[in-house]
Write a structure and sequence with these properties.
Layout (H helix, E strand, L loop, with lengths): L1 E3 L4 E2 H9 L5 H8 L9 H14 L1
Antiparallel strand pairs: 1-2
The structure holds FE2/S2 (inorganic) cluster.
FE2/S2 (inorganic) cluster (FES) binds next to loops.
């Protein structure tokens, strides 16, 4: 599922970023460049990051 259409980032990309060491939404955002254009994906990206960190 695409989370960020502007950058073509999927929920899997977010999970991969967390698995490779990102430990906060801020780090995920910096690593993937998510929410850097229209910003609409910010809320969802944050939520997925949170959920993925609970699972991890
Ligand atoms: Fe992510 Fe636009 S959808 S910046």
């Amino acid at each position: 599922m695409y989370v960020c259409l502007c950058q073509g980032i999927t929920d899997k990309d977010i999970r991969d970023a967390i698995n490779s060491g990102c430990s906060s939404y801020k780090e995920v955002r910096a690593a993937l460049n998510i929410a850097s254009q229209c910003g609409k994906c910010g809320c969802l990206a944050k939520q997925i990051t949170k959920e993925s960190m609970v699972e991890a």
